[in-house]
Fold this sequence. Notes:
The structure holds two protein chains of two kinds. By secondary structure, chain A is of the alpha/beta class. Chain A folds into two domains: 4-203, P-loop containing nucleotide triphosphate hydrolases (Rossmann fold); 211-275. Chain A has helices at residues 43-50, 84-91, 100-109, 122-134, 152-165, 180-186, 204-210, 246-252, 263-272, and strands spanning 4-14, 19-28, 32-36, 58-63, 69-72, 140-144, 172-176, 189-194, 197-203, 212-217, 231-234, 238-243, 257-260, 274-275. In chain A, the strands form three sheets. In chain A, strands 5-6-7-3-8-9 form a six-stranded mixed β-sheet, sandwiched between helices. The radius of gyration of chain A is 21 Å and the shape is elongated. Chain B has one domain (2-207). Chain B contains nine helices and no strands. The longest helix of chain B has 34 residues, at 71-104. Chain B is an all-alpha fold. Chain A binds chain B through residues 48, 51-55, 65-67, 69, 71, 73, 75-82, 86, 89-96, 142, and chain B through 2-4, 6-7, 10-11, 14-15, 55-56, 58-61, 63-64, 66-71, 74, 207, 209-210.
Amino acid sequence: xxxxxxxxxxxxxxxxxxxxxxxxxxxxxxxxxxxxxxxxxxxxxxxxxxxxxxxxxxxxxxxxxxxxxxxxxxxxxxxxxxxxxxxxxxxxxxxxxxxxxxxxxxxxxxxxxxxxxxxxxxxxxxxxxxxxxxxxxxxxxxxxxxxxxxxxxxxxxxxxxxxxxxxxxxxxxxxxxxxxxxxxxxxxxxxxxxxxxxxxxxxxxxxxxxxxxxxxxxxxxxxxxxxxxxxxxxxxxxxxxxxxxxxxxxxxxxxxxxxxxxxxxxxxxxxxxxxx
Amino acid sequence: xxxxxxxxxxxxxxxxxxxxxxxxxxxxxxxxxxxxxxxxxxxxxxxxxxxxxxxxxxxxxxxxxxxxxxxxxxxxxxxxxxxxxxxxxxxxxxxxxxxxxxxxxxxxxxxxxxxxxxxxxxxxxxxxxxxxxxxxxxxxxxxxxxxxxxxxxxxxxxxxxxxxxxxxxxxxxxxxxxxxxxxxxxxxxxxxxxxxxxxxxxxxxxxxxx
Lengths: 276, 210
């Protein structure tokens, strides 16, 4: 059995108007797991619960010690008045494994000048947060929207760093993002959360190979067997129908077009579409 | 914990010019006899510590601090250690300043009385800080500011009433124990206040969500 770096069982965190309810969640060692869902679905709440930033009402969370975790939160969190080099001074007395050389190497790689943090752009701050998260040789990265605010070139560079980070199969990444195309490139597993609950937990290969979107005209919709529909959305001139067992369905509905699924489409269909 | 302390000291270093100007103004006023140098202790202690708490809140530092090794414990511990370090530094500064002013103005100083006053003012400052920190951890720095302001006003009114109706000199004179050991006792009392305050703050911070 594969080791897990995070294992959650029956987690409940209740707020007045929202409840996070996670029956089971596992992040396997050596993998990149993407957490997706619309705003307010519970992504940040889940990450905060894992990181113990918030307390939980029920359940169990197993995770490695903080020393082995690198973190990027959704909001800015480094004191703006400090200089980039000050973080090295601070962190070497916080993390036992802090590597000043590695930190300075990342600063060079990310073209981060040694100036006061408040003078850095949003994208540069994000890069700084990622550099700090990586510079104590963590085994697990927990990242909330790590690539938001970055241009496509920088995003691609950061994603390469993430891929390199998990190459030795000992390190793992759990990240939430709105930029689902990033996950299509790097994630081994996708977890889809909606209204505080996991509604999909699949490997990327499983999603891409087994899920598809059948496009059919308005009049043809009645020909589709309701049992084959996972979710559907009516457009102006056609229906988009989310189906599992793509190859089997392609044979069954050979007169219709079956497209590959993207995570964006999957999200829209599962959230905004009509589900069974 | 060292990293957390360094973070706060770096915060303070960022505003060092402002503190230096305030300090110089204080020294000038103290030299001219318009300002009691002992008031430097509560003024700086409160201002500097409020600054570190405010920066933490403004930068969402606490949420991140919790994710660091022994984050919750070290974040709270560091504030109390800095409080003690600041208290030592400020009081040492006031002591030296007092001696310098006395020398320059050629006014002899009663060292025993001077140190006793310093210790008592230091105790009152640390006592107020000991009350203030758990309040900050519970309600946040913005609300805590208002509460502390009200607290100081209430204490000032009560002190006014106390002094009006009770002759404090007679009160101290009537207790030879207080007269002899009162100032010295403020040291362990200060540490006791801080220790109790730390324990309460830590308990609050353990359950705090960000």
